[in-house]
């Protein structure tokens, strides 16, 4: 069981170091050598920064898992960039039919809970383990306000509306995602036009990452990521030169 302690004058919650060490998991990099973008990710693993996204509302990202993940990835790469897609998370609740006010509230609540877990973990890693090769990006300031990212969003949306097979692919992915979220939340009415926006904006970040971040990076996630990637090649023929992916597991 994860231990919690109250420290300092502010009575801030902190995760007990001893219990974290006892329950810590190991980061395993999956050898997806049969997929080109994953081949690239494996080759560049030790040589360029890695981006890891933590999804709000996803039970995988517990405090324990976040600590194991950040600590483990920091040992494998020169720099780890951590992103929480809080701004675009609202599309998921809009996609489930929630009112605008309620969608914003629920997305904000889930994002803040995840941000609090991440803050506790990064504070622990900095103070107790002296880790300093990670940085938490702010989606609004570092991504949403980037002109390169916004141009990518516009370009991908244009292709989405013009290309039937791309649209079918993204709608299928978004349907699966909303259905999985609806297992623990109320699905009022599926709004596919809103549901697809979350995934399309993630793909837009993939395509614009070097310009947004300012350098080439490897993108990591705990599940295999293939849906929609071939269509990025149609939109951005040169994307193979910079898109590198890695799948990790915690064991």
How would you describe the shape? globular
| Helix proportion range | 40-55%
Biggest sheet, in brief? 6 strands, mixed
Give the SSE string: EEHEHEHEHHEHHHHEHE
Class by alpha and beta content: alpha/beta
Task: Give the oligomer, counting copies of the same chain as homo and different chains as hetero.
Answer: single chain
Q: On the 0-100 scale, what is the average pLDDT?
A: 89
Tell me the strand order in the biggest sheet.
3-8-7-4-5-6
Sequence stretches where pLDDT stays below 50 over 5 or more residues: 1-15
Count of DSSP helices?
10
- The beta-strand count equals 8
Span between N and C termini? 17 Å
Tell me what portion of residues adopts beta-strand conformation. 5-15%
How large, in whole angstroms, is the Cα Rg?
Answer: 19 Å
Protein traits:
single chain, 251 residues, alpha/beta, 10 helices, 8 strands, globular, disordered N terminus
Strand and helix map with partners:
Layout: E1 4-7, E2 12-15, H1 17-23, E3 27-29, H2 36-43, E4 50-53, H3 63-74, E5 80-83, H4 90-95, H5 100-129, E6 134-136, H6 139-144, H7 147-162, H8 164-181, H9 192-213, E7 218-221, H10 229-235, E8 244-250
Helix pairs in contact: 3-5, 7-8, 7-9, 8-9
